[in-house]
Amino acid sequence: MEDVDACDLSGIRYAVNASLHDNEASFAFDEKCKEQGITVIHAVNLGKAAFLAVEKPKGYPFSEVVKKGTDDFRCSLGKYISQYGMFWQMPVPWIDEAIRHYSNESFPQLAIGTYIAAGYCANILVNLAEGKEVKCFPKFYLSPLLEEI
């Protein structure tokens, strides 16, 4: 985490956290960005889908998705997506199935998930740069491959 503390992020308005979110350094980076007023886009590969969340410096922290010491990050994220969908009466059956299937192991990292995330990330960055409205966490973008949500 010393490397994160030493980062000079002056002049940066937006950052992308596409890490695996499997250690404290990932969230230390987010804290560093928050301290310096930088918006962070979280891009997560969910195998056959991509999840993106925009965290504003004074907004709800994305780290709240993770329940320390319990699940794999992607399982925690999957549970968040599922609960969000149930709350808004828009269930996400494929994510519930993935949670059941991968509860004892990590979600797969398929290249297609990375491509989807990269495309959405570029679109969000352009919208932010142009001052257009984007969804901010706890709202998010979820784009599965050939699945309805």
Description:
- This protein has 149 residues and is α+β, with helices and mostly antiparallel strands.
- It is 40% helix and 15% strand.
- Helix 2 (24-35) links the parallel strand 1 and strand 2.
- The model has no long low-confidence stretch (mean pLDDT 85).
Largest sheet at a glance? 4 strands, mixed
Percentage beta strand:
5-15%
Radius of gyration equals 15 Å
Shape: globular
What's the quaternary structure here? single chain
Mean pLDDT: 85
SSE arrangement, N to C = HEHEEHHHE
Task: Name the poorly predicted regions.
Answer: none
Class by alpha and beta content: alpha+beta
Q: Quote the distance from N terminus to C terminus.
A: 37 Å
Number of strands: 4
Helix content: 40-55%
Going across the major beta sheet, what is the strand order?
1-2-3-4
Counted by DSSP, the helix tally is 5
Topology (elements, then pairings):
Elements: H1 2-5, E1 14-17, H2 24-35, E2 39-45, E3 49-55, H3 73-87, H4 93-102, H5 111-129, E4 141-144
Parallel strand pairs: 1-2
Antiparallel strand pairs: 2-3, 3-4
Key words describing this protein structure:
four-stranded mixed β-sheet, 15% strand, 5 helices, 149 residues, single chain
How would you summarize this macromolecular structure in one to three sentences?
Helices cover 40% and strands 15% of the residues. It is of the alpha+beta class. The protein has a 4-stranded mixed beta sheet, with helices on both faces.
